[in-house]
Design goal:
This protein is mainly β. Helices cover 0% and strands 16% of the residues. A three-stranded antiparallel beta sheet has the order 1-2-3, with no helix packed on it.
Length: 69
């Protein structure tokens, strides 16, 4: 969930860090760190958070009779 109260800290969506390259974050406090790293200065930025993709609809077992009232 994107707007839950308890957010697991991660440098990938901290306001003090910026993405550089594919797998590195440059942090104002710690320098170059990994995206899953975090420190005590974590400050959540919801704009940087990328939600997981939605699940696909399982249509394998659906028949036309399932939609008839």
């Amino acid at each position: 969930m994107l707007f839950r109260k308890k957010i697991e800290p991660s440098c990938s969506y901290c306001s003090r860090g910026s993405l550089i390259g594919d797998q590195s974050i440059i942090c104002i406090k710690k320098g170059i760190v990994t995206p899953w790293n975090c420190c005590g200065k974590f400050l959540y930025d919801p704009i940087k958070r990328i939600p997981s993709p939605p699940q696909k609809l399982q249509t394998r077992g659906i028949k036309q009779e399932d939609f008839v009232l």
